[in-house]
Design goal:
The chain is elongated, with a radius of gyration of 27 Å. Helix content is 31%, strand content 21%. The protein is an alpha+beta fold and 458 residues long. The chain has 13 helices and 18 strands. The chain starts with a strand and ends with a helix. The protein folds into two domains: 2-200 and 400-455, FAD/NAD(P)-binding domain; 203-395, no CATH class.
Length: 458
C-alpha cells in the first residue's frame, strides 16, 4: 500500500499531524494521500484518560508564561506553538462542533468534560479531510531510503506500507496499556538519531514506609499494597500548602498548591510538579525528600502563639477534665488539620504529645504535660517525607527524554539525519508540567509536522 504521507501512531500528535497534512494538501489542490497506522483497536486511547477523563486539552497562557512550564529546551517548540497557539486550539475544536470552557489555572476542557468529545472531534476532522486511519496494525520495522521502480516510497514499513513522507508520532513509554511502548525510539535510532535518557515524569513519589517492601529498587509499582502509613494517608487531599523538594538536603524546587495521597504515593498537581526533578535525582543516586508546609501563609512564630492559645482554651474547657493528654492533643491537632490526617501525622511525629494515661483520667496538678506548641508548629511547617522511589511508566503521565531535539529542525520538525522523516509529540525530548501543556505540545508539534510534510510534497 502506498501513501504520500504516512503517520505511525494515532494518538493526539499523530491524528493532528494527519489532519493537518491532509488539509494542507487539499488547500493546495493536491490529491496526495495521508494514512495513519495505529496499533490499538481504536485511536487516541491515551486522550481518553487525560485529566481524569475530562481532557484538559490546552492551557491558554501566552508564550512567555506557557514556556516557563516546559521542562526541556522550549526553543524547539516555539515555532510549533506560534503556528498553533492555545487560542488556535480552542478555535479548532469549537470549529469541529465541540464547545470548550476555560477554568482555573487557564486550563481548557471540552464543555461536556468528556475526553471522548476530543477524540471524536479529531477523528471527524481526519475523516472529513480524507485521512485513512488503519487500526490494529503494529509497525515493527522501518526501512529507510528504499526507492521503488516508480520512484515512490522512500520509506517502507514492515514491507507492506510505502511512503515518501513519514511522520513518527508513537508517543513515549507512559501508560503502555494505551499502546505507548517506546517503538518510536527504536525507529529513530535506526534512522541515526540519538535518544536522550528516558524516565517517567508527572508520576507519584513513594515516601519511605508508604508501601510494602519491594525488590524492584527505585521503581515501586503502583500495584504494590500500601503499608500502614500508606493506608493512613491514602485518600487525603491537602490544598494550598507549600512544598519543598530537597535533593541531598538542599532545596531544589519550591511550589505552592495542592497535594494528593493516593494508592501510588504522593501526587496531585504539586506532587506531579516536583516529580520530574525528584525522579531524575533519584536515578542519579541522590537522596530526595519532600517537605510539606501545612500552614504556608502563617509565620512560624505566629503559628506557635496560635497553638499555645488553642492549647490553653482546651485545657480550661470543663469538658477536658476527664480527658488524658493523648486525647487533648488529638483535639488540638483537629483544630489545625483535617481530622482524618491526624493518625498519619502523629505516626510520623510520635514525640509531639504525651501518650497520657490509658482510658479516662483527671488532669493532675501538673496540667497538660504534652503537646509542646513550638514542636507542633515546627512539624506543621516542615512535615518531612523521605522518598524511596516512584511509580513507573505504568501510571506516569508523560515520558521525559526522547529523540534529541538538536537533531530535528525546529521550524519543520523534519529530521536532520533523514530527509522526509518527521517527529512530533511525546517521542521527542519535550515534556512539561501538568495543566494542559503536554497535550497542547502534542497538538502543536503534530500540526507543524503534518503541514511541513505536506508542503514538502507540493
Amino acid at each position: 500500500m502506498y501513501s504520500d504521507v504516512l503517520v505511525i501512531g494515532g494518538g493526539a500528535a499523530g491524528l493532528m499531524a494527519a489532519c493537518s497534512a491532509a488539509r494542507a494538501l487539499a488547500a493546495a489542490g493536491s490529491s496526495a494521500s495521508v494514512t495513519v497506522l495505529e496499533r490499538m483497536p481504536r485511536p487516541a486511547r491515551k486522550i481518553m484518560i487525560t485529566g481524569k477523563g475530562r481532557c484538559n486539552f490546552t492551557n491558554v497562557k501566552d508564550w512567555n508564561s506557557f514556556s516557563s512550564h516546559i521542562r526541556t529546551n522550549p526553543n524547539i517548540v516555539r515555532p510549533a506553538f506560534y503556528n498553533f497557539t492555545p487560542q488556535d486550539s480552542l478555535a479548532f475544536f469549537e470549529g469541529l462542533g465541540m464547545p470548550t470552557v476555560v477554568e482555573r489555572g487557564d486550563r481548557a476542557y471540552p464543555a461536556s468534560h468528556h475526553a471522548s468529545d476530543v477524540v471524536d472531534a479529531l477523528v471527524r476532522a481526519c475523516t472529513a479531510a480524507g485521512v485513512k486511519i488503519i487500526t490494529g496494525v503494529e509497525a515493527k520495522q522501518i526501512e529507510y531510503g528504499v526507492a521503488t521502480k516508480t520512484g515512490q516510497g522512500i520509506f517502507r514499513v514492515d514491507g507492506n506500507y510505502r511512503s515518501d513522507r513519514l511522520i513518527i508520532a508513537t508517543g513515549g513509554l507512559s501508560y503502555p496499556t494505551t499502546g505507548s511502548t517506546g517503538d518510536g525510539y527504536r525507529f529513530a535510532e535506526a534512522a541515526g538519531h540519538s535518544i536522550t535518557p528516558l524516565f517517567p515524569s508527572l508520576t507519584a513519589l513513594v515516601p519511605r514506609g508508604y508501601k510494602q517492601p519491594s525488590e524492584d529498587g527505585l521503581h515501586i509499582d503502583r500495584s504494590i499494597a500500601p503499608a500502614d502509613l500508606g493506608k493512613a494517608l491514602c485518600g487525603q487531599q491537602l490544598k494550598n500548602i507549600g512544598v519543598q523538594l530537597l535533593v541531598e538536603g538542599t532545596v531544589a524546587q519550591e511550589e505552592f498548591g495542592d497535594v494528593d495521597f493516593t494508592d501510588g504515593g504522593l501526587e496531585g498537581p504539586v506532587g506531579f510538579q516536583i516529580s520530574r526533578k525528584a525522579v531524575k535525582s533519584l536515578l542519579n543516586g541522590s537522596r530526595v525528600a519532600v517537605v510539606l508546609d501545612l500552614k504556608h501563609g502563617v509565620p512560624l512564630s505566629e503559628l506557635e502563639a496560635r497553638i499555645a492559645d488553642l492549647k490553653a482554651q482546651i485545657e480550661h474547657d470543663p469538658r477536658s477534665k476527664r480527658l488524658n493528654d493523648k486525647e487533648k492533643t488529638r483535639i488540638l491537632l483537629g483544630k489545625l488539620m483535617p481530622w482524618d490526617l491526624i493518625p498519619a501525622f502523629r505516626q510520623m511525629n510520635p514525640s509531639l504529645g504525651s501518650a497520657g494515661h490509658q482510658g479516662k483520667a483527671r488532669a493532675d496538678s501538673r496540667g497538660w504535660s504534652g503537646a509542646d506548641p513550638a514542636a507542633i508548629a515546627a512539624a506543621l511547617k516542615s512535615w518531612r517525607f523521605d522518598i524511596d522511589g516512584y511509580v513507573g511508566y505504568e501510571r506516569a503521565v508523560v515520558t521525559a527524554g526522547g529523540v534529541d531535539t538538536s537533531e530535528v529542525i525546529a521550524k519543520t520538525l523534519e529530521s536532520r539525519k533523514m530527509p522526509g522523516l518527521y517527529f512530533c509529540g511525546e517521542v521527542l525530548d519535550i515534556d512539561a508540567d501538568t495543566g494542559g501543556y503536554n497535550l497542547h505540545l502534542a497538538f502543536a508539534t503534530g500540526k507543524l509536522a503534518g503541514e511541513s510534510a505536506a508542503k514538502s510534497l507540493l
